[in-house]
UniProtKB/TrEMBL annotation:
Chain ranges of the SGNH hydrolase-type esterase domain: 9-177
Taxonomic lineage: Bacteria, Pseudomonadati, Pseudomonadota, Alphaproteobacteria, Rhodobacterales
PANTHER family, A to Z: SGNH HYDROLASE-TYPE ESTERASE DOMAIN-CONTAINING PROTEIN, THIOESTERASE 1/PROTEASE 1/LYSOPHOSPHOLIPASE L1
Residues spanning the signal sequence: none
Molecular functions (GO terms): phosphatidylcholine lysophospholipase activity
Pfam families: Lipase_GDSL_2
Matches recorded under InterPro entries: Ester_Hydrolysis_Enzymes, SGNH_hydro, SGNH_hydro_sf
Source organism of the structure: Maritimibacter harenae
Protein name from the UniProt record: Arylesterase
Length: 198
């Protein structure tokens, strides 16, 4: 039996598991979801609460240490909260994905969708960033980090508040579980990409 695939989960507080018991965070829940489906994978939690895409640029090189086989990039939410100029967010994510590519590693980019408070032009530009960057770098794209929760709310299965922590920003354990069920198949594809290169 071969060695487990090692995936770096590179993100912000949503990746880090802010406000949750360790076992309920994104990385442990995703690792369990993958294991239930027979994937031999180790996820490394490289989530830093409050991190922006600029912060990601500053730490991506040392995060990509020896033994990393693939990377999940889930940054942009804190840039959105700050109203960071779209050009800056694009440049930073472009740099991060470029450095991953320079290491010869496959990646999965996780998208965000802007809230309407910065206006329609900002929202349109921000939302378009992630598909554009995924195509530019030929990496997989999971379109929306909160897709599992959004689908549950749309289906009337739960009120939005029931899936978030009291801050209204970070998902609770149930919200994480719904999101993991959506991102999981993309990570299985990423694992296949890793195995195809080995």
């Amino acid at each position: 039996m071969g060695e487990p695939v090692t995936i770096l989960a590179f993100g912000d507080s949503l990746t880090q598991g802010y406000g949750l018991p360790a076992s309920d965070g994104f990385v442990p829940q995703l690792e369990a979801w993958l294991a239930e489906r027979g994937a031999e994978v180790e996820l490394i939690n490289a989530g830093v609460s409050g991190d922006t895409t600029a912060g990601g640029v500053s730490r991506i090189d040392w995060a990509l240490g020896d033994g990393i086989d693939g990377v999940i990039v889930a940054l942009g939410g804190n840039d959105l909260l700050r109203g960071t100029p779209i050009d800056s967010v694009e440049e930073n994510l472009d740099t991060i994905l470029g450095r991953i590519d320079a290491k010869g590693l496959p990646a999965l980019l996780v998208g965000y969708k802007a809230t309407p408070n910065y206006g329609p032009d900002y929202k349109e530009g921000f939302d378009a960033l992630f598909p554009k960057l995924a195509e530019r770098h030929d990496v997989r794209l999971m379109p929306y980090i909160f897709r599992g929760m959004a689908q549950a709310v749309d289906a009337g299965e739960a009120e939005r508040a029931a899936l978030f922590q009291p801050d209204g920003i970070h998902p609770n354990a149930r919200g994480v579980k719904l999101n993991v069920a959506e991102i999981g198949p993309y990570v299985l594809d990423l694992i296949e990409d890793v195995e195809a290169r080995s």
